[in-house]
Design brief:
Layout lengths: L2 H10 L8 H13 L4 H7 L5 H7 L1 H6 L1
Helix pairs in contact: 3-4
Protein name: Tyrosine-type recombinase/integrase
GO molecular function, one term: DNA binding
GO biological process, one term: DNA integration
Length: 64
């Protein structure tokens, strides 16, 4: 997703903070991490290495 699309979706949803496709991927990964096993999340995000998926989840694990 392009950043201008992310910003439009956020604006339409009433989100006033800056949103980029990078932020959207992190948010998506963090939300899904609570619901699916990490190897499934890795496949959904199309990461070659589980370590890359773990980078996306750094905030999730810091909170739990």
């Amino acid at each position: 997703m392009k950043n201008h699309k992310s910003k439009k979706i956020a604006y339409d949803a009433g989100i006033l903070k800056p949103v980029t496709s990078h932020v959207a991927r992190h948010t998506f990964a963090t939300d899904l991490a609570a619901k699916v096993p990490i190897h499934i999340l890795k496949a959904i995000l199309q990461h070659a290495k589980i370590e890359t998926t773990m980078i996306y989840l750094h905030l999730f694990f810091a909170h739990y």
